[in-house]
Amino acid sequence: MAGDSGVVFPAGPDGRRSTAAVGRAVVADALRAVDPPGARAAEQETNWRAGYLVHFRRLVEAGLGDAVAARTIADAGLASLHDRMRVAVGGEERPLATLGTAPAARTLTTREVRGAAEPERELSLPFRGGRLRGDDLARRLDSWVTGGVIEPSAAEAVRTVAANPEWLSLPDRTVVVLGAGAEMGPLTALLRWGARVAGADLPRVPLWRRVLETAGRGAGTLLVPVGPQADGDLAEVAGVDLVGESPAVADWLSALPGSLVLGDYVYADGADNVRVSTAVDALTLRVQQERPDTALAFLATPTDVFAVPGEAVEHSVRAYAGRSATAKLLVRPLRTVTAGRLLQRGYLPGADPGVNDSLVPQQGPNYALAKRLQRWRATSARAAGTTVSMNVAPPTRTRSVLKNRALAAAYAGAHRFGVEVFEPATSNVLMAALLVHDLHTGGGPRHDHPWQDEAHGAVHGGLWRTAYAPRSALGLAAVLGLGAARG
User: Fold this and answer.
1) Confidence of residue 438 (pLDDT cuts 50, 70, 90)
2) Position 157 in a domain
3) Residue 93 lies in a domain
4) What is the pLDDT of residue 334?
5) Nearest C-alpha neighbor of 303 from the set 447, 401, 236
6) Scanning 7, 37, 73, 478, which has its CA 20 to 30 A from the CA of 144?
7) How far does the chain reach from its first CA to its final CA, in angstroms?
């Protein structure tokens, strides 16, 4: 990824590129028309790195009472980010909007990789070393619903796909996977099912060797971007830098065959996550100009703030009331020692919708902004009539999670609080099935309020329905899971 070129944070008077200044300003701009006190509070936050949590929660709460307000927040947040971010070219900074018409620095061509396997003609889910299909899959879905691990609408969507296996190959579509090497992306599942996938990721040889091996074992067709006259070993010439080559990627995507599905599965560490997510958003607008019927796909992180249905609140309230006698005895002294911060109840009984705050401080404000950008785009695009697939993915043991010691420990101990952490293979196929469902149903049912669109089909791993407010149990989960995480 280009260090100080392509999409960048704006340089201040001292030449520094402050991610905190941009994050603070974007959140304030998003809130300004709907919640002026909230906007002022964000603007005046002196420690954004530690204090961002309450402001990202307010972005959800401020829009709960009115669907128009929620969409206003999304549109204003997107506009602010696009207005503030810059494109650095040859030492010169330009507005982000110039990416909409900027000429490509090079022309990308396509190399095809066709899988040698037969397409899978039945939905099967990798789970604990085996594969669930048919009645076994149905029982697992029922178990997850009963345990509060997934929303009933998610289970119903997966059942619908299982009953229509001809959907799996997504005939006549090209699914673009931006972030082809991402652990949480649908590339592997789609290729096993025989779909046509266009993969884009950084030009890193080990990454592309892994992606190309996956394509060879699959049953679909992988379309790979390469430069002109790029012959020889494909792994050595494949790939693009989305941050620095947005116009070239947009032109390449616009020329692909079939009905286009633009899937945003990119991830990077720290500030680069905002840069690449913003670059993809600018690319998305350019592709939509060329191909207005393009569908959009995202995965929402479960470690964010969401409005949740009253049914989820009731489940959590029952779980809190039904704690064991030992658990109830332990809560009081623990809460006393931590000034009430530990093991708070999840919701006020009767809340509908409730607000689930699963933000994790260790992930930081840049991660939160990058993921909120995607939710805002999904909201705005749905309002404009675009087919959108955006589902909350479960907490998953990905490499990016496990390299954070605190988060890895919390995930290892999460099961003690009714939260199930998934293996990547299970998450991949489950979320790919939900994508297939959405694409065959016009994005799923339309709801009156954007929060209902976000809550539909959620696979939150139990974070929405556990007895406790997730962050109030995070520290204790980390302590309990420390030994397992080290192992």
Assistant:
1) very high
2) no
3) yes
4) 61
5) 401
6) 478
7) 33
Beta carbons of 379 and 450 less than 8 angstroms apart: yes
Counting beta carbons within 10 angstroms of the beta carbon of residue 93, is it exposed (0 to 12), middle (13 to 18) or buried (19 or more)? exposed
What amino acid occupies position 267?
A: Y
Give phi and psi for 479, each to the nearest 5.
-65, -45
For residues 470 and 419, is the Cβ–Cβ distance under 8 A? Answer: yes
**Which pLDDT belongs to residue 171?**
95
Tokens (6 digits) for 187? 């590339």
3-state secondary structure of 55: helix
Residues 165-183: pLDDT tens digits? 999 999 999 999 999 999 9
Token couple for 376 = 């805002």
pLDDT(433) > 70: yes
Per the CB < 8 A criterion, the answer to whether 443 and 295 are in contact is yes
Rounded CA separation 283/381 (Å): 14
Both tokens assigned to 85: 């971010």
pLDDT tens digit string along 328-350?
A: 666 666 666 555 577 889 999 99
Count how many domains the chain has: 1
Flag whether pLDDT at 192 surpasses 90: yes
Structure tokens at 222: 């992988």
324-332 LR contacts (CB < 8 Å, sep 24+):
none
Locate 12 and state its tokens.
């201040």
* pLDDT band per the 50, 70, 90 thresholds, residue 90: confident
Q: Are 125 and 132 in contact (CB under 8 A)?
A: yes
At 403, is the pLDDT very low, low, confident or very high (cuts 50, 70, 90)?
confident
Token code pair at residue 61? 């709460």
- pLDDT tens for 232-286 read 899 999 999 999 999 999 999 999 999 999 999 999 999 999 999 999 999 999 9
Domain holding 40, by residue range, is 6-98
Q: Is 139 exposed, middle or buried (0-12, 13-18, 19+ CB in 10 A)?
A: exposed
3 state DSSP class of 311: helix
State both tokens at 228.
């002109």
Residue labelled with tokens 């249905």: 309
In a domain, 76, yes or no: yes
Written as six digits, the tokens of 333 are 């002294």
**Listed residue (178, 194, 195, 174) closest to 259, CA to CA:** 174
Q: Is residue 470 part of a domain?
A: no
Task: Tell me what pLDDT residue 173 has.
Answer: 97
Q: What is the 3-state secondary structure (H, E, C) of 123-176?
A: CCEEECCEEECHHHHHHHHHHHHHCCCCCHHHHHHHHHHHHCHHHCCCCCEEEE
Distance CA 143, CA 137 (A): 10
